[in-house]
Amino acid sequence: AQSVTQLGSHVSVSEGALVLLRCNYSSSVPPYLFWYVQYPNQGLQLLLKYTTGATLVKGINGFEAEFKKSETSFHLTKPSAHMSDAAEYFCAVSVGDMRFGAGTRLTVKP
Amino acid sequence: DAEITQSPRHKITETGRQVTLACHQTWNHNNMFWYRQDLGHGLRLIHYSYGVQDTNKGEVSDGYSVSRSNTEDLPLTLESAASSQTSVYFCASSESTGLGQGGETQYFGPGTRLLVL
């Protein structure tokens, strides 16, 4: 079965700094990969997803992720953090049903 | 605008009681899902449905049941609530596309916070 590992349950960056949230997946077949964001007391919202084609995927709010098959990774990046980026971020892999990572809480310091 | 709603948003119940959480979507999506969210575990799939009269067990289905009588609704029932079922429950839906059951974006409701005493 497919699975996801998110490295780091909590990441803290300064406003304007690079955001890097790490995600590694395990799948026996080519996967579909997702990043979702969850703001306090809300449901999850899609940031971006990889299905096929271009391996660099651009999402909302300036986020992007690169699918690297050789490294089984799908790390999420944003060049410059904003206070409004503070939230919980979930990586997910889907081959049939969807499996989520444990989540990474992003804190942005002023 | 299309949306997915859950009710109640907060629920306190006692051990052994039957509890039903409602999920209603106006996206007209065929696929619907129930997850629970617990600290350190992310979201785990409880049950899912790919259409009316179709239901399937997910990763953590013991103690839960669902039924799908129409496109819009997928209620989740806890047959006999246990303290281990204290959690936040999320409903989600997605359309069926040519990508097959896997590449579709899931749209999430706001969640139901359940406390079992």
Description:
The complex is a heterodimer of chains A (110) and B (117). Chain A is built from no helices and eleven strands. Chain A is mostly beta strands and 110 residues long. In chain A, strands 2, 4, 5, 9, 10 and 11 form a six-stranded mixed sheet that branches. The relative contact order of chain A is 0.34. The mean pLDDT of chain A is 94. Chain B is mainly β and 117 residues long. Chain B is 0% helix and 50% strand. Chain B is built from no helices and eleven strands. In chain B, β5 (42-51) and β6 (54-57) form a beta hairpin. Chain B starts with a strand and ends with a strand. The chains are: A mainly beta (110), B mainly beta (117). Chains A and B meet through β4, β5, β9 and β10 of A and β5 and β10 of B.
Helical residue percent of chain B?
Answer: under 10%
Number of helices of chain A: 0
Shape of chain A: globular
Order of helices and strands of chain A: EEEEEEEEEEE
Distance between the termini of chain B: 37 Å
Shape of chain B: globular
How far apart are the first and last residues' alpha carbons of chain A, in Å? Answer: 41 Å
**Would you report the number of β strands of chain A?**
11
Give a short account of the largest sheet of chain A.
6 strands, mixed
Instruction: Find the biggest chain interface.
Output: A-B, 26 and 25 residues
Beta-strand proportion of chain A: over 45%
The H/E string of chain B reads EEEEEEEEEEE
The biggest sheet of chain B, with number of strands, parallel, antiparallel or mixed sense and barrel status, is: 7 strands, mixed
Number of helices in the DSSP assignment of chain B: 0
The chain-level mean pLDDT of chain B equals: 93
**How much helical structure, as a percent, in the residues of chain A?**
under 10%
Oligomer: heterodimer
